[in-house]
Amino acid sequence: MIENLKDFIDEVEKFKADSKEKVEELRLKFLSRKGILTEIFNEFKSVAPAEKREYGQRINALKQLVEKKISEAQAGFEEKASKPNDLDITLPGPNYTIGSHHPITNVLNEIIEIFSRLGFTVAEGQEIEDDYHNFTALNFAPEHPARDMQDTFFIETDPDILLRTHTSGGQVRVMEKQQPPIRVLVPGRVFRNEAVSARSHCIFHQVEGLYVDKNVSFADLKQTLMYFAKEFYGEKTEIRLRPSYFPFTEPSAEMDVSCSICGGKGCGICKNTGWLEVLGCGMVHPNVLRNCGIDPEVYSGFAFGMGIERTAMLRYGVTDIRMFFENDMKFLSRFKI
Ligand code: DAH
User: pLDDT tens string for the chain (337 positions)?
Assistant: First the structure.
């Protein structure tokens, strides 16, 4: 046996650990009590003293080689076990919870999409506004009650700076920068110093619409809003315009749509009137055009503004505006689209 040491070393060197069974065979063959190394050690006792040193070294080399091969192979198997490569692609994958847009975003996107078909683009206003853009340029008289501390959040250190109370200031910012033709939507968050209840909130969203060009008439306003109402609330929707007052439009109106819940027959949502109030609108006041450097003798325009929360409440049958701000996952997951 001992004469074959070199062959054994060769054999172990060439050994390929391609299965656990083969590794175990190798271990039994060389390291077990009846294995080759036990036998070799036994024979070693009778080796001539002069040759002991050389044989001894070879035997140790063989033993270390076998041990190394085995431990390497085992490490390899363990690594494989932690990374299974026998992937079954027919198994169902892990379940990920996919987020969704907020209902306010959904409604806003839908409104933008409808008006974009009529050539409206989107502009950004600013949440922190000055008195001029939020009120003065929009033809609010200096003593107008909307400027009252009770409605408007003013910045304490500078009474000229406030949180915008509506997106209408966005009209002014657009017209200051751009001459007609203008077709623009200004969506955004607005702030009012109001008590929070199921029906009103101190923070909400609006979208403003503005169209200024030559010969824009009230008929254009009506047609545009009717198109929107039918696209958004349904083909059968009817609209009605009631006279109203806003400082920045003349004439001004409020638009109602036939109740999409009961089809106009009367229900709890429309308080049995068959109509839902959805937006304010009117022809842009000549003073507003003038304040923005647009000649009211040449151009005319219409504007409208609607609350997104109110629109979403009607669309989704939500009865408490506070739900939009509470980030309750159960509520929000209802609006996955
Ligand atoms: N800014 C008004 C509000 O907050 C809504 C509004 C009414 C906007 C008439 C308009 C408009 O552009 O023409 O109640």
Answer: 778 888 999 999 998 888 889 999 999 999 999 989 999 888 888 888 988 898 888 899 999 999 999 998 888 888 777 766 678 888 898 888 888 899 999 999 999 999 999 999 999 999 999 999 999 999 999 888 877 766 899 988 998 999 999 999 999 999 999 999 999 999 999 999 999 999 889 999 999 999 999 999 999 999 999 999 999 999 999 999 999 999 999 999 999 999 887 888 888 878 899 999 999 999 999 999 999 999 999 999 999 999 999 999 988 889 899 999 999 999 998 887 6
Q: Is the CB of 303 under 6 A from ligand 1?
A: yes
Q: Determine which residue's CA is closest to atom 6 belonging to ligand 1.
A: 305
Please tell me the distance from the alpha carbon of residue 100 to that of residue 274, in angstroms, as a whole number: 33
Q: What distance in angstroms lies between residue 131's CA and the mean position of ligand 1's atoms?
A: 16
One DSSP character per residue, 98-132 reads P----HHHHHHHHHHHHHHTTT-EE----SEEEHH
139 within ligand 1 shell (Cβ under 6 A):
no
| Ligand 1 atom with the shortest distance to the CA of 190 | 4
Place of tokens 């959805």: 278
